[in-house]
């Protein structure tokens, strides 16, 4: 329910490599959620072989990151959390809040924003494989349980070997409404990727930035 490829500024994983890794991991459905774009998800959907792709986007709002799922059009960045949620729902999408209690992400949803918007969200990420502190996932799970919100699961994969480290095992579904019901009875499986993965992500982000600067100079 949360993956990235080369279309995200902090990943250098080619879409074709991502597709091979998904198939190798044995995943049946993947939610592609690059940062502030759906282009990678659309490309992955074209390359899918033996698995389905749900188009998503991890959106940078003024209140922190929010994921839109079952999208057909991109959602603009830098809106309020409320307007972002309205735009996702307007096109029939689902709203998921990723890594809400993360200590290692500066762009997580702000707590005061989460307290405002939780009645309007469809899911909250209760296991993210990239959390540096396991307790952050447990706090998210407790929040979901206390507010009766379905729990989302994400590898948050930026590199191929991360794909499949976290997933939700649930009944098959044909659309967003079926999926909401399936989530509630799903089983969470996940392993943390470890602290070093964030160093790799910073390296990838810098490499891409340097590549863009080199292209502009030439």
Q: What do the pLDDT scores average to?
A: 92
Strand runs, count: 8
Query: Tell me, what is the CATH class?
Result: Alpha Beta
Percentage beta strand: 15-25%
The assigned structural class equals: alpha/beta
Radius of gyration: 16 Å
- Find the CATH superfamily: Metal-dependent hydrolases
Shape: globular
Terminal CA distance: 38 Å
> Which fold name fills CATH's third level, the topology?
TIM Barrel
Strand order in the largest sheet: 1-2-3-4-5-6
- The arrangement of helices and strands along the chain is HEHEEHEHEHEEHEH
Oligomer: single chain
Helical segment count: 7
CATH architecture: Alpha-Beta Barrel
Helix content: 25-40%
**Low-confidence region ranges:** none
Task: Record the SSE blueprint.
Elements: H1 15-25, E1 29-32, H2 39-47, E2 52-61, E3 64-69, H3 81-90, E4 94-97, H4 111-117, E5 123-128, H5 134-147, E6 151-154, E7 166-169, H6 176-184, E8 187-190, H7 197-217
Parallel strand pairs: 1-2, 4-5, 5-6
Antiparallel strand pairs: 2-3, 3-4, 7-8
Helix pairs in contact: 1-2
Question: How would you portray this structure in words?
Answer:
The protein has seven helices and eight strands. The termini are far apart. With 218 residues, it is an alpha/beta fold. The longest helix has 21 residues, at 197-217.
Task: Quickly list its features.
globular; six-stranded mixed β-sheet; alpha/beta; 218 residues; TIM Barrel
Structure summary:
37% of the residues lie in helices and 19% in strands. The chain is of the alpha/beta class and 218 residues long.
